[in-house]
Design brief:
The chain has a single domain, classed as Amino acid/polyamine transporter I (Up-down Bundle). It contains 18 helices and no strands. Helix 3 crosses helix 9, helix 5 packs across helix 10 and helix 9 crosses helix 13. With 487 residues, it is an all-alpha fold. It is 68% helix and 0% strand.
Length: 487
């Protein structure tokens, strides 16, 4: 979902804007966000948003499904992301404001419960993504320090890491967009190292690129199901582009530059992922990749035995996934805060700490959910990273299905400025493909549906508690009165 990116101080301020407005005046009294982002900064923001946990943690599991053709699911995932990106581009250039799936859903359908479900699903995807990142962080830390702590050690480190994320989240995160340039370059460096090692190994004859065409399916699956199963995992590496629409109000001339920049960012990350997957399978046997939570580190160790980069690489990977976890938990807690403030969930979630001015109740609740997820999946699944990453993919593909339909419904809503117009076939195809990848026909494991269903059940129970409370107190009906606050 939101991978490997820092958030601007203006974004965090926007998350608390209505709380501040209650003390300083109405929202209309507040100045507009400063438009500081040109094409270059927006491109780096989008690339940084997409890069992160997925490719660092799940490349081995993708290879386990299709063998040496691990590049193919990443390529297909890029195609699926491209279809949905065109729908987002039409919506963000049509409504150039800080928005998101919840707002687009509300504009298209106007059903408050559906809007809430989309917002809660996005929030849940942030928690599962951060939980995946915490597991990957723990695995890389153990590899980096050469510890032999086993599964229990990874679990304890992952939980301790989430405590640290919660502490930072509580203190408040205010990095600027320009600081994201540095973070993105560091994250990208970890993947470029893999690609350069691949070229080095190729020139030295140490890489077996014949493996790239060795298609091997797992568990006697047919080719189509094997590819869709692997694509469902690989898609986790492509998510993040959708979050860039939240920067529309801070971008210069968004209706003009967003299409080119978003498509360029997606293409760059897709190319990097394909090259990384080709390098990894040509350097490391598929069996070893499938059994590892640090597949890229295996490639570094195999392809550069004469260089000490393998000692540094686990820490590069740790940085990439740590940043991803932080920003996803930041997003999740602010979304929960917004739903609490609008009383579609218990208003206690809108409680803001007087000194830190952060939504501490929402931070505690989302952290508790992450704790429960990490513990539950770690004790009930042999491949916890795969399960959590697959759940993130499932949740976001569900949201993307709705967005692809919404863009078609909103064609009846005209605006008085030029905007990107996706060919009708693209959102139609995007809706069908995303919907298919959500179903069990795509080869997803049942555990993924259990985790996603559990999260959504928690949201529905909280909605019902709020509904009954509002009715009992004779308050207004439970409705999303400001969907832009759920972006």
């Amino acid at each position: 979902m939101v991978e490997g990116v820092s958030i601007s101080s203006s974004q965090e301020a926007a998350a608390m804007s209505h709380q501040v407005s209650a003390e300083q005046g109405s929202p209309t009294d507040q100045p507009e966000l400063r438009r500081v982002m040109g094409p270059r900064l927006l491109l780096l923001f989008i690339i940084g948003d997409i890069l992160g946990t997925g490719v660092y943690a799940l490349t081995g599991q993708v290879a386990a499904e299709v063998g040496g053709a691990a590049w193919l699911p990443f390529l297909v995932a890029f195609g699926v992301a491209l279809l949905t990106a065109c729908s987002y581009l039409e919506l963000v250039t049509k409504y150039p404001q800080a928005a998101g799936a919840a707002l687009y859903t509300h504009k298209a359908f106007g059903i408050h419960f559906v809007t809430f479900l989309v917002a809660f699903t996005v929030m849940s995807s942030g928690i599962t993504s951060a939980s995946t990142a915490s597991q990957a962080f723990a695995a890389n830390l153990i590899e980096g320090f050469k510890l032999d702590w086993g599964t229990s050690g990874i679990l304890l480190i992952a939980l301790a890491f989430m405590v640290l994320v919660a502490a930072i989240n509580f203190r408040g995160v205010g990095e600027s967009v320009k600081a994201n340039v540095v973070l993105t370059l560091i994250e990208l460096s970890g993947l470029l190292i893999i690609i350069f090692i691949g070229f080095y190994a190729f020139t030295g004859g140490d890489a077996d690129f014949s493996q790239v065409t060795a298609f091997e399916t797992a568990e006697d699956k047919n080719v189509f199901v094997a590819i869709t199963t692997a694509t469902s995992l690989a898609f986790f590496a492509m998510v993040g582009f959708e979050d860039s629409v939240n920067m529309a109000e801070e971008t210069r001339d968004p209706s003009r530059i967003f299409p080119k920049v978003m498509l360029t960012g997606l293409t760059i990350t897709g190319l990097v992922y394909v090259l990384v997957s080709i390098t990894v399978v040509s350097l490391v046997p598929i069996g070893e990749l499938a059994d590892s939570d640090t597949p890229l580190l295996l490639a570094v160790e195999a392809g550069s035995p004469d260089f000490p980069i393998d000692r540094l690489y686990p820490f590069i990977a740790m940085f990439a996934v740590a940043n991803s976890a932080l920003i996803n938990m930041l997003m999740a807690s602010r979304l929960l805060y917004g739903m609490g403030k609008q009383a579609v969930l218990p208003p206690v979630f809108s409680t803001v700490h007087r000194e830190r001015r952060t939504p501490w109740v929402s931070i505690l609740f989302t952290t508790a959910l992450a704790f429960g997820l990490i513990s539950y999946v770690s004790t009930t699944s042999e491949e916890s990273i795969t399960t959590l990453g697959g759940t993130t993919s499932l949740l976001l593909l569900s949201v993307f299905t709705v967005v692809n339909i919404a863009v078609l419904v909103l064609r009846r809503d005209s605006v008085d400025h030029d905007h990107f117009h996706a060919p009708t076939a693209l959102p139609v195809l995007g809706a069908f493909v995303c919907a298919y990848l959500v179903t069990p026909l795509s080869g997803r494991e049942s555990k993924v549906y259990q985790v996603a269903g559990l999260l959504l059940a928690i949201g529905i129970v909280l909605w019902m508690i709020t509904w009954f409370t509002n009715r009992a107190l004779g308050a207004r009906r439970t409705s999303v009165h400001d969907p832009s606050d759920l972006s």
